[in-house]
Fold this protein.
Amino acid sequence: MLGKHLLSAADLTRDQALLILDTTSELAAVTDRSVKKLPTLRGRTVVNLFFEDSTRTRLSFELAAKRLSADVITFSAKGSSVSKGESLKDTALTLEAMGADAVIIRHGASGAPERLATAGWIDGAVLNAGDGTHEHPTQALLDAYTLRRHTRDGQGDLSGVRVVIVGDVLHSRVARSNVLLLQTLGADVTLVAPPTLLPVGVENWPCKVSYHLDDVLPDADAVMMLRVQAERMAGAYFPSTLEYSRMYGLDARRMALMSPDAIVMHPGPMNRGLEISADVADADRAVVVEQVANGVNVRMACLYLLLGGASSEGDGSQ
C-alpha cells in the first residue's frame, strides 16, 4: 500500500516501488486496446497545478487521469490569480472548495508539494510533479520502469543493474529522485559530472561519483543523460558549451564504448548537440520516446493506487 501522498522517491519502500511498477505493467495493457479508458476514477477530480512550464509532465498526468475517467482541471500559474499575487495557501483553499481529490503540483520552490500536503489546506492526495531542484519522483518511477523492461524483462527489482547518470546533477531534481529510487531497487548508480555541477553533500548520496565519462561507459547497462539547465544557471559552470560537450556529451564515439545491449535514456527535453548528439538521440538503443509513453502508464498507476486502488482499501488514506 502507498501512503496518502507521493512527494519523494525517498518515501517509497522497495515493496511500494515494486507495487507501482507491477501495477504499471498491468495498466500498460490498456493502452493496447482500442478503447483506452478505465472507469476506476469516475467521479474523482484531479487538478494539475503547474507553477512552472511543462509539456511532457503536464500532458502525461492529464492523459493518465483521463484514461482513468477522472475529471481533470489544468491550472497554469501564468494568466491566473497566481500571477496577480495569490499565495499557494489561497490557491490550495480554492481547490479544496472545488472538491479536488488529488492535486498534482509542479513548483519552482523546493518543498512546495510537502508544504501543500502537510499544511492542512486540502484533504486530497498531493503528487509532486517536480519541485525546484529537489525531486521528481514520478520521473524516477518511469525511468525505473523503462530500465526494468530492458534489463529484467519487466520483472522484479533492479538488483545489480548498472546505471550511469551524466550531466547537470546540481540543478536536476530527476537525478536526485533517480539515485534514491534506483538504490532502493538495488541498482548500482554512478554520477558523472564536472565538479561545478555536483551538489554540496553528493558524497553522502547512495551512489558513486566520477569525473570521467569514458571510464564508466563500458560497464553501464544504461546511460541517462541530463539536460543542461541553462535557465537555472546564474554563473559560468563550465568554460563553454563546446568544452562541456567534448568532456561530458554522449556522441557516436562514446556510444561505441558501451555494451551493445546498453540503452541511452534522457528525461527530456534534449539539448541536441550539447549533452547528446543527434545521431545518438535517434539511435535504436535510445529509449527517450519510450520513456514518454511509459510515463503515462506510471502516472496512471500512481493515481490508481492513491485514489482508487490498493492504498485506499481499509486504511482510510484517500
